Amino acid sequence: MKIRPARSAGGRARPWYPDFHALWDRVLHEHASPLRVGFAVGVGVLVGCSPFLGFQVAIAALLAIAFQLNKLAVFLGLQISAPPLLPLVLFVGAQLGELVRHGHLLPMNLDALRAMPTRELVHLLFFDLLAGGTLLGLVLGTTLGTVAARMATRRASPEFRLSRDEMVQLGARLPALPFQLRQYARWKILFDPVYPVVASRLKGVRETLDLGAGLGIMAAVLVHRDPERRVVAVEWDERKVAGARQFLSGLPQIDVVCADARLFPVAPFESILLLDVLHYSEPFAQDAWLGRCASALRPGGLLIVREHDASSRGALAEGFERLAVKLGWNRGHGFHPLRTIDLVHRLESLGLNVETINNGAAMAGLTLLVARKSFAAGSLPCFLVQGDS
């Protein structure tokens, strides 16, 4: 009996052995936005500082799969517990744990440790390492994860990162914000690729409506790239509106409006942004919202949407959103993500041509869609529904 090789859709025989080059390329580039890479490294470091020796690789692998993290970055962070560093990590972790739990350091005298019953010593060291290792892992993981994210940002394609001049200009505006908002804005500017990606898609567009504009970072980037552009930034969170007006001070091209856009009369626009806001409305309201946005677009205009994919396993992004709503950081009427395929079908049913942008999301489970209205389509004024970011 002859064994026939498997054939691809094109009729060519596929090799029986795995395509290691494609496999490696997938591992290298999966979930590879700067924020995801940094978080993955931090998780690896945290697991590497834990006392679960012998199980750390399995724990790291499970976390990488569960949270859709870059596996290579997770295992890179895990090297904090590699043999050259392991004794130092264990020593510092145990001492930190003893200090946190009992208010003093472990004795440096080996005779004192040998005098303790074995069971008592193991119990003491395990819980010291659990407490101290967690603390050490959080500190080192945050530090090394931030470094990794910054390095990934520098290596990213120009389309997915802000220029040095843009970073300097935005950074100069940060001191105007209160501390909490300033730290939030700094992380968004450093690690969220949505700003350069959206700005590159809106090149040449002279008017933009940003619904759920938050602190106005997107508006600042757009005006920096085109000083002749007009941006209307609508936000209903009074705290964020106050912050946006401070952050955008001196930019008359940007009009920051504190209003519920459901009551906000809007003339036709060349571009409308719904970035991380649609899911705060009920599904029926989302459907109506998209229809109104499509009607408001000028012929050839762009509707850009970033949303959670309900069919994705992006537990990390979803968890952050639910926590933000619960803590009151983001205002909204619950959390109602759609499946990306349903969102695309809805946009196409409105006569829009939809493109999915890869790497336009900071975390797994987010999708960035660019929908263009046909030049033959009409444009009608409308009232738009408000979301939040």
Tell me briefly what this model is:
The protein contains 15 helices and nine strands.
Name the CATH architecture of the largest domain.
3-Layer(aba) Sandwich
Coarse structural class:
alpha/beta
Tally of strands: 9
Q: What's the overall geometry?
A: elongated
Report the β-strand fraction as a percent range: 5-15%
Poorly predicted regions are 1-10, 378-389
Radius of gyration: 25 Å
Identify the CATH class of the largest domain. Answer: Alpha Beta
Average pLDDT, all residues: 82
Helix content: 40-55%
Largest sheet: 7 strands, mixed
What is the CATH topology assignment of the largest domain?
Rossmann fold
Report on the architecture of this protein.
It is a single chain. The chain is of the alpha/beta class and 389 residues long. It folds into two domains: 20-155, no CATH class; 159-383, Vaccinia Virus protein VP39 (Rossmann fold, 3-Layer(aba) Sandwich). It is 49% helix and 14% strand. Residues 1-10 and 378-389 have low confidence and may be disordered.
What keyword list fits this structure?
disordered N terminus, 389 residues, disordered C terminus, 7-stranded mixed beta sheet, two-stranded antiparallel sheet, Rossmann fold, alpha/beta
Topology record:
Layout: H1 20-29, H2 34-48, H3 56-66, H4 71-78, H5 86-102, H6 110-114, H7 118-155, H8 164-173, H9 179-191, H10 194-201, E1 207-211, H11 217-225, E2 230-235, H12 238-247, E3 254-258, E4 265-266, E5 269-275, H13 283-296, E6 297-308, H14 315-327, H15 340-349, E7 352-357, E8 366-373, E9 382-383
Parallel strand pairs: 1-2, 1-5, 2-3, 5-6
Antiparallel strand pairs: 4-9, 6-8, 7-8
